[in-house]
Amino acid sequence: MEKEPEKIIELVNVKKIYRMGNEKIYAVDDVSFDIKKGEFCCLLGTSGSGKSTLLNLMAGIEKITSGKILVKGKNIPKMSENSLARFRQRYLGFVFQSYNLINAMTALENVEFPLVFKRVPVKRRRKLAKDMLVKVGLGSRLAHKPKEMSGGQQQRVGIARAFVAKPEIVFADEPTGNLDTKTTIEVMELMKQMAKENQQTIVMVTHDRSLAAYADKVIHILDGKIQSVEVFERNEEDMQVQLKEVSQKLLLDRGSDRKEINYEETN
Amino acid sequence: MRISDLLKLAFRNLMRRKARTALTVIGVVIGTISIVVMVSIGIGVNKSYDEMIMQSGSMTIIRVQKYGAIFDDDGNYVDSKEQVLNDSVVEQIKGIDHVKAVSGIVNKGVMLNSGKYETWVTLYAMDCDVFEAFEFPPLQYGSYPTKENPSTIVVSPESMAYFYNYSGNNYQEKSIDPLTEEVILKFQEYQTHPRKKEFELEFKDVAMMEQTDNWEYSYNIYMDLGYFKEIWNSYANTLILEDRKSAVASLDSYEEIKINVDNIDHVEEVQEKIEELGYATYSEMQYLQPLRETSDMLQMVLGAIGSIAMIVSAINIANTMVMSIYERTKEIGVMKVLGCLVRDIKRQFLLEAGLIGLLGGVVGILISYILSHFINKYGTGIMSSLVGTGTTGDLSIIPFWLPFAAAAFGMLVGLLSGYFPARRATRIRAIEAMKTEG
Fold this sequence. Notes:
CATH topology of chain A: Rossmann fold
Largest sheet of chain B: 11 strands, mixed
Helix content of chain B: 40-55%
Largest interface: A-B, 27 and 25 residues
Number of strands of chain A: 10
Helix content of chain A: 25-40%
CATH superfamily of chain A: P-loop containing nucleotide triphosphate hydrolases
Distance between the termini of chain A: 43 Å
Structural class of chain B: alpha+beta
Distance between the termini of chain B: 24 Å
Oligomer: heterodimer
Structural class of chain A: alpha/beta
Number of strands of chain B: 15
Shape of chain B: elongated
Largest sheet of chain A: 6 strands, mixed
Strand content of chain B: 15-25%
CATH architecture of chain A: 3-Layer(aba) Sandwich
């Protein structure tokens, strides 16, 4: 490594406690870690482990109970709703498990949407959105509504929407949770490749162990606590080889696993 | 977000639920129509009342008459009293604030002769200075008397229009033109001294008023008070001694004192001050006031009826907006996560509600114009017998400001009824919103 990359996300003693009647539930219990710029970080854990809550806390969607979350040096929990919105416009992108596309809008309009909030002029944002959709391989689907597309296509629209404003950080919450294995690989590679092009940081939440292979850093979470942190130092070549192996393994193994995991997830 | 984007989005959201939007707009249309038509009828009725009052005389005039009426507390006539109106009273009234012009007025029944034809008219004599202040009608020819030229006699067209030959068999009326035909004025109050020649005044310098709707001036002739005193004295000289004394004495008091107030709003005030001096007064305003109150009341009732429909349509808009926020909860959540400012979410919903209001307002106004046209064409007869104005003017009058006011009102109703739903939308928490189906 020539130079130590800066810390783009830093969590210090983060706690999130839900109250259910008289009972306290520690969804996130005293978690501290940091993520470096350009890193692909995976939060791995079973359903109910608090990994999604952690992601929502980092994105400022959920309120924190105590602790500090610094994203690009800003303490997210202390920000006002307005400045948080502007912060999201500028620095954050989101990919969701259920895509969360707006059904009344075409693919192009959906990808354009974050740019509308940023007051980007019509012509420019249309071009940006179109280029993005071409990049994710949906150049021929610009005018299609989400309901007219397959899950994989919808998620690619979702990815295009997340990356169109060139955010520094992309949060992905189970991005492949609703997709079959083949599409999962496509989507993962797409995200990885996009992030690499612009040195973007990805924080992905998943329950799927095999997807961890795409990450530079895997944080295992159990019952709201960090169990272990794995950091993979890979060079380019290693990476390619490894990924190929992973893809193969995914394709071979996952048929049976998948159902089990899905079952677990719906519980 | 840019305004253009907000507008586009609002339009698109309205178009997404065409039937619901259309129904809500129709609600506003009905509300607007009921307000515009009701207010226009109120204005129409008010105007016909005003016209009726205008016909009966100038509204800033107060009269103090020799036989003042006495009213009880409920405003009913109970008796009259004789009051002495002389120059000192005129001077006292002159001293009251807001009084523009005052004059004592003498009136005498006089006979006009033109050859075989004769007619009876009333002669009014007043200060030549006050003709203008009392808003006398313009003249067809001649000019009102002045200090330099006090001998002009002003006649109304009607006073010259009905001359009769009483010695003839058929009482056919004849119109006399005082410019070309000889007219002679005679007083008839006292018997002429048997050995003296009857007093006669030939019309030499005549001015003719224009025809007016105001029947106050019909059958009257006017002259300057000073000039009148002159001729009255020469008339008195033709009488027997006793009559002469009483005739001259009658000049000391007036039949009436007429006051012009500078502004309609001060009429009541001045009237009260004169009453404080101990004189009974009379003004058109007295009669106008209850009439105006009635018609204002009518206008309020009509407006209130119209407003009910508008309130219902406001509730309708609010309902539509609440529904559409429920439907779009997830969308709102996504927008928030993607970095949409709360302000923009609020604006978007307000804009949708405002557009519904504006659209309904504009369509409602167009239909109101059509309705107003038909009301005036077919409804005037029926309604005027109902309201009892008896005029044939337009029943429904839409003044130029009403459509703008109605459109603005429609939009305001939309915005107001959209405000609370919009605020509710901004309070939706992104995390829960995204979990909802939609």
